[in-house]
Write a structure and sequence with these properties.
Blueprint (H helix, E strand, L loop, with lengths): L1 H70 L13
């Protein structure tokens, strides 16, 4: 009977050890998932900053073109020939 009791005790300890290992692995997976999410967030943030800079550059070019258009006199009228 003592052997059976010892065997049950060792099996219970083994289950507890496996549960502990599973918990540690689960936490490690969560940390890795958090790291992956953080990396993706930083990548998106960097991409967004790049797009904001691109937008600002385009806005500046549009304003420059508008200034050029507003500061120049209109081109002379194109001579039309009426076909008859």
């Amino acid at each position: 009977m003592q052997d059976a009791t010892n065997e049950v005790h060792y099996k219970e300890e083994g289950v507890k050890t496996l549960e502990c290992v599973d918990k540690k692995l689960s936490n490690a997976r969560r940390k890795e998932d958090v790291k992956d999410i953080l990396d993706e967030f930083l990548s998106i943030q960097k991409n967004l900053a790049s797009k904001e800079q691109e937008k600002a550059d385009l806005e500046m070019k549009v304003h420059s073109l508008l200034d050029l258009m507003n500061n120049h006199s209109p081109p002379p009228p194109f001579p039309c020939q009426v076909m008859g």
